[in-house]
Write a structure and sequence with these properties.
Radius of gyration: 18 Å
CATH architecture: Alpha-Beta Barrel
Strand content: 5-15%
Cofactor: Zn(2+)
Keywords: Metal-binding, Zinc
Number of strands: 10
Shape: globular
Protein name: Fructose-bisphosphate aldolase
InterPro entries: Aldolase_TIM (IPR013785), Class_II_FBP_aldolase (IPR050246), FBA_II (IPR000771)
Mean pLDDT: 91
CATH topology: TIM Barrel
GO molecular function: aldehyde-lyase activity; zinc ion binding
Largest sheet: 8 strands, parallel, barrel
Number of domains: 1
């Protein structure tokens, strides 16, 4: 059952695309991080996407239903009025995606980008059919994102999204948003400002019409890089994924603890957890205000 008041990507992203801002997609990872993210969005009157990936469900030992129920509880207790979307990030197994749909997620991502083009199309089409029957939006990916410890390789551009392929992919799959590879990576960047192929992004935009474009690997990117990506003519990237920054802030505020399961975090001393949650909220506020520039866009987004 979907959370009352929740939205799909198709509800939230078009306004951001038209007006040149982004919507932060925060991978909360730990259940305890959902509340500070939603507090930040509500206080800044910003639309927001709360997400978790298939791999993160395993890392933090959570189910889609547990994640959905915690967000529903927070939304109810905070009386959240801003547009929000519950999204399943990078996932590749149909049973996990179906579990998220059944749990009440508003949006799911099928990541078959490691497969050949025809297989990516076929699998994405299956997920689009599954999801759309339930009123759920679908993000897909074309091109391959590396991790930050493998950047600057000789064949980087072979992994980038081809604009002509992107057009065919969107036409063949009917996906609602497309994650592209233009030089970002997962993790924290070892260089101050990674090389982003904005010309490629402009070419992709020209080929995919008004389809929302997603930029993964947002943690650690300089704000000016993100602003340029958001303001491409006819609409740049609108969904900006932020994951590593939140977890780094959380663990650092609690004295540099190592990654743990969500349940292990919940069992820590309440005062210690409060410090971690405050760091997550501060980080989310900074990203909303200075990174995606979505502060005070909530009312506009619903009208």
């Amino acid at each position: 059952m979907k959370i009352p008041g929740s939205s799909t990507l198709s509800d939230i992203l078009p306004h951001a695309q038209k007006h040149g801002y982004g919507v932060a997609a925060f991978s909360a990872r730990y259940l305890a991080c959902i509340r500070p993210v939603m507090e930040a969005a509500q206080e800044l009157q910003s639309p927001v996407i709360v997400e978790i990936s298939q791999r993160e469900l395993g890392w933090f030992q959570l189910t889609p239903m547990q994640f959905r129920n915690e967000l529903a509880k927070v939304v109810r207790e905070l009386n959240v009025t801003v547009p929000f979307c519950l999204h399943l990030d990078h996932s590749w197994e149909l049973n996990v995606i179906q579990d998220a749909i059944d749990a009440g997620f508003n949006s799911v991502m099928i990541d078959a980008s490691s497969r050949p083009f025809t297989e990516n199309v076929a699998l994405t089409r299956i997920v689009v059919d599954m999801a759309h029957r339930a009123g759920v939006s679908v993000e897909a990916e074309l091109g391959k994102l590396t991790t930050t410890d493998k950047m600057e390789s000789e064949n980087d551009e072979e992994m980038y999204t081809d604009p002509e392929e992107a057009q065919h992919f969107v036409e063949l799959t009917g996906c609602d948003a497309l994650a592209v590879s233009i030089g970002t990576a997962h993790g924290v960047y070892p260089v101050k400002n990674p090389k982003i192929d904005f010309d490629r992004l402009r070419a992709i935009r020209q080929r995919v019409g008004d389809l929302p474009i997603v930029l993964h690997g947002g943690s650690g990117l300089p704000p000016e890089t993100v602003h340029t990506a958001m303001q491409i003519p006819e609409g740049g990237t609108t969904k900006m994924n932020i994951a590593t920054d939140l977890e780094v802030a959380l663990l650092a505020a609690m004295g540099g603890l190592e990654r743990m399961t969500s349940a292990e975090l919940d069992a820590l001393d309440p005062e210690l957890r409060a410090k971690g949650r405050q760091a997550v909220k501060d980080t989310a506020i900074d990203k909303i205000r200075n990174f995606v520039r979505s502060e005070n866009r909530a009312w506009e987004n619903t009208h």
